[in-house]
Structures are given as structure tokens and as C-alpha cells.
Amino acid sequence: MFAKNKKYGKRFYHDLIRFALEKEGWKITHDPYPVRTLGLDGEIDLGAERIIGAEKENEGVVEKIAIEIKSFLSPSFMKDFHNAVGQYLNYKVLLKGKDADRILFLALPNETYKKRFHLEGVQLIVSEIQMHIIVFDENEQSIILWEK
């Protein structure tokens, strides 16, 4: 369904994540999700929601997420990571004022997660800022890990 050539970069990953979310039953509500608050404008890559079951009177609860997708394709992991963390923090703070019940995730390729996200410094930063992560497999075109 998707070209596997990395030259497609951001759009390739964007479409892959959208497809994987829909496959898991998520409804894409925003593509992109606009963040316009407090005089700042930005766009998170995707907004999605799904109804999850709740036991009380069989009523569904709506779970809402926003996803910033990062390819980590540049030669410098540190530069990519620095940009991802900065953007994640900006969006996390702005979402509090606009849509506080929407959970922000950073989506990244499995290869990057396996090679770099186990490093002590990366783990410290991810933990400190309480970053939520989605790891996706390009070949399987699926989400393989949700980490809160």
C-alpha cells in the first residue's frame, strides 16, 4: 500500500500512521490538528478519537489523542531528538489550554526506537517530560507499541 522508499520521508510516515490508526479502530478527526491558542499557531500531524467501552450503563467513553510524527531521517539523531522534544513540549502545553483531555503522542519508527530510545539520556528526558510514545513498524505498516 505504501512505497517503502525512505525518500518519501514525512508524508510516507504520516500516511502509514493514519492507516495504522484506522486499522486499530481510531477515527481521524483532524489532519492536521490545529493548535491555535494564546496567540500561537501550530499544527500537530494528526488528531484521532475512538470510543472505548465502559462498564457503567454500557456507555462509551471517548478517548482522544493527538500525534506528532517524526521520521528521524537526518544524519544527526541528536538534532532530530532535540527538535522532537521541543515540538512535543510546545504542543503539550498548548493542548492543555485548548483540549485538555486529548493525549499527545510522539510517533517514531521502530528502528529509531530500538537503536536510540534505550539510551540513558533519552530515557531520562522522556521520563522527565512524561512523553507518550507510539512506535510503528514501516514494513508491517502497523503500530507495535503504545508507551505512556
Provide structural commentary.
There is one protein chain. This protein has helices at residues 9-23, 77-98, 110-116, 120-128; strands at residues 27-30, 33-37, 40-44, 46-53, 60-69, 102-109, 132-137, 142-147. The chain is built from four helices and eight strands; from the N terminus they run H-E-E-E-E-E-H-E-H-H-E-E. The radius of gyration is 16 Å and the shape is globular. It has a single domain, classed as 3-Layer(aba) Sandwich (Trna Endonuclease, Chain: A, domain 1). The strands form two sheets. Strands 1-4-5-6-7-8 form a six-stranded mixed β-sheet, sandwiched between helices. The protein is an alpha/beta fold.
Quantity of strands, as a count: 8
Give me the oligomer status: single chain
User: Percentage of helical residues?
Assistant: 25-40%
Structural class: alpha/beta
Number of helices: 4
Terminal CA distance reads: 29 Å
Radius of gyration: 16 Å
Which strands sit side by side, in order, in the main sheet?
1-4-5-6-7-8
Query: Can you give the mean pLDDT?
Result: 88
Assess the beta-strand content as a share of residues. 35-45%
Instruction: Examine the secondary-structure arrangement and name the CATH architecture.
Output: 3-Layer(aba) Sandwich
Which residues form runs of ≥5 with pLDDT under 50?
1-7, 54-58
**CATH class categorisation:** Alpha Beta
* Overall geometric form: globular
Total of domains: 1
- Main sheet record: 6 strands, mixed
Q: Output the helix-strand order.
A: HEEEEEHEHHEE
